[in-house]
Amino acid sequence: MRTILCLGVTACTISACTIPEKQLVEADAPGAPFACLGMPLPSTADMQVTIAGTVADPFTGSTLPGASIEGYLVGVPTPIFTATAEANGAFSHEQGTGGVPRNAYLRTTLNGYITTSFYPAVPIVHDYSTNIQLLTQQDVATLAQVAQVTIDNTKGQILVAVVDCNGTPLSGATITTTPAGTIRYFVDGTPSPTAVATDMSGIAFVANVPAGNTTLSASASGMSLRSHNFDAVAGAFIQTDIQP
User: Fold this and answer.
1) What integer pLDDT is reported at residue 10 of this predicted model?
2) CB neighbours (10 Å) of residue 168?
3) Coil, strand, or helix at residue 184?
C-alpha cells in the first residue's frame, strides 16, 4: 500500500489515507523518495485505465453521493467521461488511452458545494485513484478565517499536496504559483499564517490566484520538484499534487 494525503474528517484537519499499489501515477519511480527526480515522464500508458475515487465533505466527514465527476483532457473543452458518486461517495470509470499518457483532470460538482477540479501531478498512465474534497462557501469562510486571508471570489483557490516519488508527503517543502497567490502552509491540520514551509502533512493552501493558466512549482530538500500547469477558475477550487 502507498499513502496519499486527503483532507480529514474534521474542520481544517489533514489525515492520511491508503490506496492500492499502482493507483498513484508516477514517473516509474524505483522506490527512493527522490528517485524520479529529473526522469522523463512515461511515453506510453496502459491501454485501459480505471479512474476511481471518493467524493466527501472534509468538514463533516460525510461522503457525497450524487456528485457529478467529469473527466477532461487538458486543453479540451468537452469531457471524455462523466461519472456519478454512488451511495458511499465512490466513483469508478474505465477509460481507454490508446496507449498514450492522459494529461487529464477531474471536475466535480454538487448542489450546495463549490466546483472543484483535481489535477494529478503527472499524466495518467496506470489505474488512478484519488480523494476529492468538496467545500461549501461556509467551509471556505472558516478556512480563510483560520488562515487569516480574505477570499476574493473573482480569483481561484488552490489546495496543494507536496509528495515524493512514492506519494509520501514531504515536510519542509515550499511552493510558488505563477501568477502568485497568498500561500498558507498547514501546521498540525490547520493553515498557518506564519509557517514558511510544509509540515509532515505536505499540505499548502494558496488563496486568491488570478484566474487563468497557473504554474505550480515547489522545492524540497534543496531540490526543485516537477512543475506543472492548470487553470485557476474564479470562484472555484483546485486540488492538485506536486512531486519530483
Assistant:
1) 34
2) 16
3) strand
Q: What is the SS3 assignment for 61?
A: coil
Tell me the residue ranges of DSSP E strands in 87-244.
90-96, 104-109, 116-119, 128-133, 155-162, 174-178, 182-187, 190-192, 203-210, 212-220, 223-224, 228-232, 237-242
- Regions of the chain short of the pLDDT cut 50: 1-30
The domains found in the chain, sorted by start residue, are 2-242 (2.60.40.1120)
Strand partners, 186: 191
C-alpha cell, 216: 505550480
3-class DSSP state of 143: helix
Which cell is 228 given?
A: 506543472
**pLDDT at res. 27:** 38
195 vs 118: CA distance, rounded Å: 25
Residue 112 Cα distances to 59, 64, 128, 167, 196, angstroms: 14, 11, 27, 31, 33
Which amino acid belongs to residue 22? K
pTM: 0.87
As a whole number, the mean pLDDT across the chain is 88
Dist CA 66 CA 127 (whole Å): 23
For residue 88, what is its C-alpha cell? 458511499
> What is the C-alpha to C-alpha distance for residues 145 and 29, in angstroms, rounded to an integer?
39
